[in-house]
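explain this.
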Amino acid sequence: MLRRVGADRVIYPERDRAANLVQAVLVPNVTRYARVAGGFGVAHIALPKGYVDVQLGELGTAGKVRVIAVLRHPPADAKPGTPPEVDQQPQAVTPVSGGDTIVVFGKNDEINQLSQSL
C-alpha cells in the first residue's frame, strides 16, 4: 500500500527480524545477528568454554572478518545486572576466553565459517 502511494522507502520489521533470527539460530555460536547490506552482517559470536586466553589472531579472523569488539562477561560471583566489560579496540594479540563474545563484521559466509570453526 505504501509503495502504491509513492513511498520511496518501506520498512518491513517482521521480515527483517525473521531473516536476522534465522541466521542467529542456524549458525552455531551466533547469539545475535544483524544484516547490514548485500551479503554483509554484524554478529555476536559466543566463544565455547574450551578457550582460555587465546589471542584473537589465532581464531582465524585475520583477513576474513573484522572484530569490532570483545564483550567479557562478568564472573559468576558478580553482582546481578553487572554489564559486560567491552573492549572497543581489540587487536590480534587481545586474549579471549570461553564465555567471551566477539562482535564481528564481514561477509555472511565468512562469519558462518568462523562460527563453525570454533
In short: The chain has a mean pLDDT of 84. The radius of gyration is 17 Å. The helical segments are 13-26, 108-117. DSSP finds two helices and seven strands in the chain.
